[in-house]
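Known limitations

Files may contain more than one protein. Parsers should not assume a single record per file. Below, a two-record file is shown to illustrate correct handling: read the sequence, read the token line, then continue until end of file.
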Amino acid sequence: MSDTTFDYVIIGAGTAGCLLANRLSADPKVRVLLLEAGHKDDYHWIHIPVGYLYCIGNPRTDWLFKTEPDAGLNGRALRYPRGKTLGGSSSINGMIYMRGQARDYDQWAALTGDPAWRWDQCLPYFRKHEDHHKGADDLHGAGGEWRVERQRLRWDILDAFAQAAQEAGVPATDDFNRGSNEGVGYFEVNQRSGWRWNTAKAFLRPTCYGRANFEMWTNAHVQSLVVDREGDGALRCTGARVWTGSAVVQVEAEREVILCAGSIGSPQLLQLSGIGPGELLQRHGIPVRHELPGVGENLQDHLQIRAVFKVQGVETLNTLANSWVGKARIGLQYLLTRSGPMSMAPSQLGAFTRSTPDQPWPNVEYHVQPLSLDAFGEPLHSFPAFTASVCNLNPTSRGSVRIRSPRFDEPPAIAPNYLATPEDRQVAADSLRLTRRIVQQPALQKYRPEEWRPGVQYQTDEELARLAGDIATTIFHPVGTTRMGRDDDPMAVLDSRLRVRGVDGLRVVDAGAMPTITSGNTNSPTLMLAEKAAEWIVRDAARSAG
């Protein structure tokens, strides 16, 4: 720790924090400190794609959060993984490259009143850091830090599901990232030659490590922000108090503190610092520095409903991985070719479609896997099977993240409030019917699919919605807990340039800033958001110096 005063202090070396550290430290005159509560990303299972199985639920790489018991899940609580290592959740996630739909960003522009969030204004910032395997075109970039590749495997059972989806009216696609992701095909992934490509590899190594103006502290857990009142009465964030494992060190930011701790960590840290709903803070004995009722509210997530089908006459991972011969074959294939099941993302085949024909746009996403198990982390079933997980892309249910105490090391209460609205329960029931319709198509019948979960005895809307609560789980896409919005929106935490309302020198740049969840996986939209923020931060600094 060479010094404690920097131009920028970035809290959280996850998806957004790594990109911001790279962009801001590109100016050699600017000193940047990147703080990460977790370890370096030197755990070997981070880098082998199937290693997510050993990273989720592992205190070396995961915050080990759990949700509150949820009424929509019939009283169940869920494991809620969030990355706690360099690269953040990009080190433990599903590696799926997905932007969402153009209408998502047009909606952000409408909600914030800022045309900078329109799809056509966001697309250049996706392309800026992209290194797409097909090369550059009007919609994709090449030569950037964020590698996008095809998966290095196929499964007969997944090919059959894709054909069945087409027979049910879902068109084939080879690119989910052109503004409309409707269709069925294999996901593209953030990998390089069969290895996971996380944001620490992409944006920190080797670039930032070679810069004299860049400093990074790992195992550095921020206790609270430092918020002072200036001579004119305005509040300003001037730094942070950091627990290093042996002492509390106060760091100072002469320009900005940039909070990139994610949709769970960022609202928690704001609340611990006296910024948030006044009643909540007072209940825990925290002085209210600035009342912002939206901090920790508006939590949105994708809930996946996992339907399992037994099959016959086709290989699945259940049968392959449940024998020593199969395991040896899997290991040898990866060792020799960096392909096969060890190179697998958690989901390989995707589909975006409408839960019912009257939906105005694709409103559900499938993650289809050639395997089945009772719950994540449990053993694979002994019988051959596949899982067709389907999620509502645009849930209307809203949850919250709220501190339980003034202790920085106590996890917050995470209450997603799944399936809380009639609309979400209806989409859940319709989604299960749609899954059945796809599986009944001719392309899958040679494998004699048999619905094992939830079971064909459940048919009514009420039964299916209740069963969705029994078998559904998070797909790890929390957003919205520090959302941006218009000046006249009392629940907006940030302005449209991601600045915390009423506190100078403080931004939140992570998925919490999203006012509504994107129609797909959320990692790459978070990178785009950070890319735009980096440009605004540099521009604001130049204007101030000016």
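...continuing to the second record:
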Amino acid sequence: MSTYEARLQALREQLKADRLDGFVVPLTDEHMSEYVGSYAQRLAWLTGFQGSAGSAAVLPQEAAIFTDGRYTLQVRDQVDGQHWSYESVPQTSVADWLKEHAPNGARIGYDPWLHTNDWVVRAREALAAKGAELVAVERNPIDRVWSDKPEPSKARLVVHGDDLAGKSSAAKRQDIADWLRAEQADAAVLSALDSIAWTFNVRGQDVEHTPVALSFALVHQDGTADLFVASEKLGEDVRQHLGNGVRIHERNAFEPHLRGMRGKTVVADPERAVSAIFGALEAAGARIVTKRDPAVLPKAIKNQVEIGGHHAAQARDGAALTRFLHWLSIEAPKGSVDELSAAAKLQEFREACGDLRDTSFDTISGAGPNGAIVHYRVTEETNRAIEMDSLYLVDSGGQYPDGTTDVTRTVAIGTPTAEMRDRFTRVLKGHIAVSAALFPDGTRGSQLDTLARQFLWQAGVDYAHGTGHGVGSYLAVHEGPQRIAPVGSGQSGGDEPLRAGMILSNEPGYYKAGAYGIRIENLVLVVPRPVAGAEKDMLGFQNLTWAPIDRTLIDLALLSPQERAWVDDYHARVLEIVGPQLSGEVLEWTRAACAPL
């Protein structure tokens, strides 16, 4: 099937054969991952949507695709509006849409390996109002009609040594065991791939941009564990690393194993464990405790070895980005650079800096109006030349064994307009406000989000994404539970208290549809900030990312003396950290780019 219209029709015919009146298609896998392997890209196969978050619902006569504000423009470019209606999250939801559009008495199918229990409960309640039924399918109907569906990756796991992890797998499992005893539970389900990679100090190549391996795990109260992973993916080095305390099973043995846990008290994370896991435990008669995966918080709070690794990775990555910005300043005005060639050149510079394993996400290389598409992904069809007197936005990152990077720079090619400089400076002021924030221990990211938006609000504008997300240690570039985002933003909010050792992005932006986009992003580390006479423990942020910010886009009249000092201090640190890795023309350009305002 070469067209998305034909694929939609084939799915409808399969649903009819399965006696279903509709089906829900999320963009995730059996592990509730954000980025998924090619075998699980069902939403992209069906609709053409290439974003990293979304879902769809298909009925006999109509279909809808659901995305948040980051993808408002992208979804309209990639998904045919003749066959799909565009729905915005969180203003509406799949369950709400089905409640309104599903026929009375309809049977709506869902794959229990791709949804959480909470979603199933909400959808079932919504459909009940129409006398409709939510039906779990034994085999996903898309898989039945996707004839050339890729197989899951067979790549081998690799050991992530204690010199990089900072703590042994045995010690991490013992911490989980101690927690289980306190919770009076026998075992915890680990189904999130980054939790498994972190707990067992292994990494993989099964998901693009995220070094994880397709697997499930159970950690027990005695500190031992069961790891469910295809045996062909394990070399002798990994088996020795895991040791006798980890029993190995085939991945497809996970569900039968759960069904054998009769009488056990098992912790399962309602956000990360899919409905099928809860169903198997319920079928076994196990007592289920719904609590957060015990690896999530310790994984988010980096130890000193991980923090040191991040500093080293960020310094190398900053040098690569700085070389790229120098190259762009010379080549772009010649008119010979487009989005694809720019992204490829940045990749070259990253590869040359040493030990790059992957990009941490698809590079967002947006020229002019494409920069206004928040999660834009350039293709041969959308590729634009970088033109004079325009803005170019590049959001990119690398996966290195000692750290994960994520950085955005917006640069002027030629002469920017007064409006561009105004908006850029307001974004910069918000970025500085977050970077310089001082806040009590226990503050939530949602409480800091307004700091980034206040200067844009003064001009009557805003941006439709969170201000910051957590970042892993050679793991997921989007890592929970911490965020800087409005409560109820549809992107998990920012309700987690920030703790020293957490890493987040700081990335306010502004997007003018059809014209240009602006974003300034650094990664920051939460650190203690002693305050004389303080009655509370105070925290702040330490910058991790080092690369020049385009001075030609700054309207100095809008900056306070303190903000000017922040920019000058930041650029002095760029020269201190990145400068020794540069030489010749690149170093001279960097000195000019980092000159005091």
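Parsers that stop after the first record will miss the second one. For reference, the second record is described as follows. The radius of gyration is 24 Å.
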